[in-house]
Amino acid sequence: MKTWFKSGSPWVWLSAGGVSISLISVLGLLWLIASRGLSYFWPADIYQFDMLDQAGNKSTVIGEIYDREFIPAEQLAHADITLAPGTTTVERLLVKTGNRELVSLDFRWLLVPQITDTTTPEELVVIERRTNGNFYGFIEELILDGKAVPQNQLGELVSRVEHFQSQIDVLQKVDIGAINYQLERLRLKERKHNLDKTLTEEVKADIHGQMDVLKSEYQQLESKLLALREEIARDQLNVRAMDGQVVTINFEDILKVTFNNQLGLWSKTGVFFSQVAAFVVDEPREANTEGGVFPAIFGTVLMVLLMTVIVSPFGVIAAIYLHEYAGNNALTKILRIAVINLAGVPSIVYGVFGLGFFVYMVGGSLDQLFYPENLPSPTFGTPGVLWSAITLAILTLPVVIVSTEEGLSRIPSAMRHGSLALGATKVETLWRIILPIASPAIMTGIILAIARAAGEVAPLMLVGVVKMAPNLPLDGNFPFLHLDRKFMHLGFHIYDVGFQSPNVEAARPLVYATALLLVTIIVALNMTAVSIRNRLREKYRMLEH
């Protein structure tokens, strides 16, 4: 036994066991997130429950089963429910009933002993709407331009509305949005001339002439928009709810109509992938509890890329100075200690620093110097994507510095001496020999920085991220990339949906789906960086020997 311990085998097995447990834990976590998240997109069967309470009252509940659990029978003593002798637990179902205009809550608990019959009628329909969530019921009548028509035209009418709605979105967000943006710029231009005392009658007439042209274009687009809205509001759908009440739903509010109980496996698979795609490319609705997360995906990726562009040169330059130029003195030791300590500072402290220094001090100064016509409304003196990227760049700077310096320290001194002996300057040696060999270590630092920055939320809450951003930081209006705008972030979106949502039960699967998407994006960014690192390692492997 003593020889076995001296051989080091126990520590090898301990290390292997620790790595295995960590790997199993990570895979288990990913499996939990994936199973809960992907089930959100699978079209569930729609049930009709016939209920009978203790008073003999009959009722019908229509919806999809979200969860089921067993509760102790003692908890139902106040409900005066007759149970079979010896019953210790009672099963209950959490059913999503939707129909918000008829009932106050989307979900309700049903006790299984009170269910007399459970069916899945093929005529049951799920209507996904732009507002008020889903509607479950039976289609009674299809109204086309005030007249009842056969129900087989339902798909055609939904496609028609989708076509008109896409045109409306383009008009509102692209055409009309561009005109509003140009009008605002002309207004600010006039105000700037006024502040500079250069607003002559000629300049004023020119600005107002451009405004009149834009307003004329705006009126034409507005007329076209109103015509499209009249077209899209033409048709209605009469649906019978579970209480027998007939509700009229305008097609302009309908996103999708699905008969879930008529779908086979392949049809459900197609619906599953279409809903996954819609989740990725659509915008959120209903206080972020429905719809997609595209603005959050875009904001997360843009912020991480900006952070990477900022932190990479500064981290590499700092590491080169500390290892190649700084002497081995007290100042260098203090700098290294400071870098290491920065890595242990809580992230929220970086957020407070970014808010106080970058937003209020630097951004406020930029507004005073370059955007006085916008004041008192701030341009850069308010949280935005630029300050978020810089704040996270400072947060991840120690990671890049330490990783780069480790890579520089592994390069033999003989390579430096050989290059200098052949007549190369120190800068040429650094640029042509040292940095190429150290590039895999630099990429390792960047990979770690990306992984940490993509998952940070606390500092972003202070320096740029918001619950709902009306405009993306990138659009078709000059200068195209608007670094002063606020943005959405997947990490904050998870926090907002999970803890600030008015509808907790509806938001729970969405939290898992968004978490899975965030993990996927982080893995994709890391795999891209790892691929680049591996190529650099193979490319410069010969220089190491």
From TrEMBL:
Its main location: membrane. It is a multi-pass membrane protein. PROSITE patterns: ABC_TM1 (PS50928). Keywords: Cell membrane, Coiled coil, Membrane, Transmembrane, Transmembrane helix, Transport. It is found in: Cell inner membrane; Cell membrane. Gene3D superfamilies: MetI-like (1.10.3720.10). Residues 204-238 form a coiled coil. Residues 297-529 form the ABC transmembrane type-1 domain. The chain crosses the membrane at residues 12-33, 293-322, 334-362, 385-408, 429-451, 510-532. NCBIfam families: 3a0107s02c (TIGR00974). PANTHER family: PHOSPHATE TRANSPORT SYSTEM PERMEASE PROTEIN PSTA, PHOSPHATE TRANSPORT SYSTEM PERMEASE PROTEIN PSTA-RELATED. Belongs to the binding-protein-dependent transport system permease family. CysTW subfamily. This is Phosphate transport system permease protein PstA.
